[in-house]
Every structure is written in structure tokens, then in C-alpha cells.
Amino acid sequence: MTTAIIAVLGVLMVSAAILALLHKSLVTAILSAGVVSLVASVIYLFLAAPDVAMTAIESISGAVYVAIGILGIVLVAGVVDQLRSPEEK
After folding, report:
1. Rounded distance between C-alpha atoms, residue 62 and residue 9, angstroms
2. Rounded CA gap, 69 and 15, in Å?
3. Which of 35, 72, 84, 87 is the most exposed place for a label (fewest CB within 10 A)?
4. Structure pTM?
5. What 3-state class would DSSP assign to 5?
6. Which long-range contacts (CB under 8 A, 24 or more apart) does 31-40 make?
7. Considering only CA atoms, which of 29, 35, 34 is closest in space to residue 11?
8. Which of 23, 7, 17, 66 is nearest to 37 (CA)?
9. pLDDT 10s digits, 46-66
């Protein structure tokens, strides 16, 4: 039974990885990469390796923080561009 669950999770992980590589939307690619890491941590839990699973979960939170930081920079750059006078553009 455990082997079947791990196999299904493996297929889900590979599908999410392919989606992350091929999708045009950056948000979808980031979420798909997060799904890959989350599924990997669940697989590690099934394999009785909770220390490795916790490391995978921490990498998800790190990726989320980086994505939020990049989103903030992009939003601030857009606001600054709108506030510039037409002569500066």
C-alpha cells in the first residue's frame, strides 16, 4: 500500500515539475515548484525520514519569502515608473 501511495505521489511530483518548466505564468511556475517540494517532503515522511522532510518544508518557506520579495520589488518599480514625470520618461 505504501509503495502505491509513493508511486502516485511521484507521478504528481513529476507532473508538477513539468508544469513548472513549461508554464508561461511565473506565479503558476512558483506554485508548481512548491508542490514538487511539498510532495517530496510527504514522500520522505512515508520513507520514515522526518528530518529530511522538515528540510524540504523549510525550502518551501524560503522560496515563498524570495517570491514575496521579488513581487515587492516589481510592484515598487511599477509605482516608481508611474510617478515619474513625462519628461523623465
Report:
1. 22
2. 27
3. 87
4. 0.57
5. helix
6. 33/63, 34/60, 34/63, 34/64, 37/63, 39/9, 39/12, 39/13, 40/13
7. 35
8. 17
9. 887 777 667 766 666 666 677
- What is the chain's pLDDT, residue by residue, as a tens digit (89 residues)? 788 988 998 899 899 889 888 888 877 887 788 788 788 888 888 887 777 667 766 666 666 677 777 778 878 877 877 777 666 65
Question: Which residue's C-alpha cell is 524540504?
Answer: 56
Per-residue CA distances from 54 to 11, 49, 87 (Å): 21, 9, 53
